[in-house]
Structures are given as C-alpha cells and as structure tokens.
Amino acid sequence: xVGTSADRVRDRVVFIPRMCEGxxxxxxxxxxxxxxxxxxxxxxxxxxxxxxxxxxxxxxCYPQVVTLAELFEAMDRPGFDPARAAFMxxxxxxxxxxxxxxxxxxxxxxxxxxxxxxLVSPNSDEGYRDVADAARDLRRTLWWATVxxxxxxxALLRTRPYEAEAGRxxxxxxxSLEELCQALEAPSDTTAERRDRVVEGLRRAAGRxxxxxxxxxxxxxxxxxxxxxxxxxxxxxxxxxxxxEALGAEAWLSGIGEWVWYVNAWExxxxxxxxxxxxxxxxxxxxxxxxxxxxxxxxxxxxxxFLDDRPEPHGVEEILDLAAPYLPWEGxxxxxxxxxxxxxxxxxxxxxxxxxxxxxxxxxxVVSEAVYLRVSRDHGGIPTRVFYVDxxxxxxxxxxxxxxxxxxxxxxxxxxxxxxxxSNGLSTKEKHLPRPEPRRGHPGSSRxxxxxxxxxx
Length: 457
Hints:
457 residues, alpha/beta, Rossmann fold, five-stranded parallel β-sheet, 48% helix, disordered N terminus, disordered C terminus
C-alpha cells in the first residue's frame, strides 16, 4: 500500500527518517497536529545497518542504506505492527537515484513479507503538497516546521563555537526545539493562533541563545553545502560539523528551506514550459509561494538582529543566478545547481572555505566537484572541496585539518589584499577578493566585544 496523504494514514504510525533530527522532530509534530501518530525513526544500530547492507547491492546512495537501516530499526522495536505502520519516503523525478528509493522499498518490503507497511511518498513535482492535501492547513504547518527547524539550527551553529560554557548552546537548542514541537502539535482553533504560538516560541528561543555566555575565538568560517541528506544527517556524515568546530571552525550549513524554494521554482518553470503560465495551477502555485514567503519572514523576524551577519539569500533565484555561469539550472537539475550557486554565495558573504558533503558516488557531488575547480579559480582561489561520506569515517579528521589549513591561508591572503588596497577601493586584480566580515563571538549582539581585530593573535 502506498499512501500519499494524511487522511490515508490516520490509523497508522508514521515513521519519519532522521535526515535532520531537528526537522524530523518538527515534521512529526506537524503531522500529529492533524491526528496522525507520527514518530521519528530510532537511530540505526550496527545490526540494522548490517541488515540494510545485506539487502542492497552497494550501488545505491549511502542515504538509501541509512534510511533502510532506520526502517529495520523501527521494525525491530517491540510493538511494531505492519498493518498499522507507514514509512515516510518522499520521492522525485529526474536523474537523482533518490527517485528510486520509494519503489525499491516497496519491492523489498513486499518480498520480506511486510506488504502491509504503507509508504507515504509525496513527489517534488507537486511541491510535496500531496501529503497535506486532505488535511486543512497541514501544508502551512509543515512549512513552519521547516523554517523553524532551520532557524534553530542556524542559531545553534552561530553560537556553539563561541560558548564560554560547554553544552549551553546545545541545551538552548534542545529546549527551543521541544517548545517548537509543542507549539506545532498543540490543538488550535485557527491557523493564526498556531502561527502566533510558533512565532512566540521562536522569540523565546532567540532569547535563550542570546543568554548563552560567549568568548572571543579566532575561527575560520566554512560554508557547508552538498547533498541534503548527508550534509544534515549527523549519523551519515560522522558528525562533521562538530568535528569542524573542534578543529577551530564555524560551520555555515545550508538548510532545508532552500530546497523547498527550489522545488517551487521548478514547478513554476515546468508550468511555463508546458504552456500553462496562465492557468489555475500556476495561480495556485504563486499564491502558495506568496503565503510561504510571508510566513517565512514572520518567523525569521523572531531572530531579528541575531543572525544578520549570516544572512540567507533573498530568494532561490539569487542562488540560481550565481550558479548559471557554471550550471544553467534549466538543464542541470537538482542539488548540483544549488550547491554550486550557494558556494559562490557563501564566498561572497565571508566564507573562508566551502565544503560539499555528498554520498560516495553521488552524481550531484561528482558534477559539482568538477565545477568547483572553476568556482575556486574565479573567486580568489577559495578552498572548495567535496567530502564524500560512507559508513566509515576513515581519516576524516586529518582531511579536515588539512582543509582548514587551506582556509586559514585563504583568509590571510584575502585580509592582506584588503589591507593593501588603495583607499579608494580595490585594484582591478583584487576586486574578486571581498572584504572579510567581522566574526563576532556571539551573533547579533555587541556585548561579546569580539571585533575582527580583537581575535588576531
């Protein structure tokens, strides 16, 4: 059985993969708001991972193995009832193997005797809206879950590298995430009431992060792009963000919301391509995007002044325009376009290096890797590298140390070019080296007292 909307799984327990733990928890809370018993899959253990590898050929993407292992882990827990279980596995069209995950799972479950387990498989071609069509306001609640989870993660990564007391930022994040889930899940008489509750929870979250004691630190800024599952799944990437922080970096990690905007842009492009620029479908798509943008601004306002020095693009069009000289988005589809465009964006906003986290053998990673050579050359030689991940961490720390050495060298070269520039601006040769932005000890607050000059040895 394949279910694609909330009403078809109301009598089932819906298990959500742990692609990004924060967002997975907020999505589960959003589904519970309409009466769906949604839960995040338990972390995959060694036994479940071994079972997943036995049932795959080795040619699949690593996220396929991880999500299968999480499903096996859930199935192995006491009380699992196939007739009352469903597994959330979105899908997509296009060249990425992600589009084969759901059909593969369906065949495997049938072969293993779990044909009663349902798959919930919304498709990117419809903006993933079909999962929410039957539930009033669920799509907006899921969008708030996306934006809210992204904001909390951005605040955590902006604060944790500079915390003066280990663990304070993580506690602020956990408390804020739990409150956000409660705001999303709690019954509401109106959509506005739930939205106001979410916004108020995010305002309190911003207060928690502002209250974290911080200390000046000399850290390089590393932009993190790549395949959406592996860059966000701590299990899949072996905690690469925390490893960066332990080695003296701050990570600027691309979130989930930008992918939703890409899917929206592609939906509108396809409607125009098929001659439906003036159609009810296009009107619905544009209206939906307008509501999403308004809601996004309202939720982001809760963190006003806190994340201003780590701004996200004004719209997905900005990312696509930056990628166009390397990968025109009408022909090169999916994450490779977003990764390349975001890499250029991050370099232009102060990043000292950009790393792409992708599964081993990922087509998007392979194509991007070839393009990054030119991106680096066109932007002052900024270190830009793909870190492929699989089930073993290998010498990851050593490779990260070498990468951060390159980042520090690039930062020194860029800052030297700025200091050497004439008073009326950079020379023609130096124009591609942007002025570095100060890295504060604490985002959005002058009380940290950590100016760019203060952090130099």
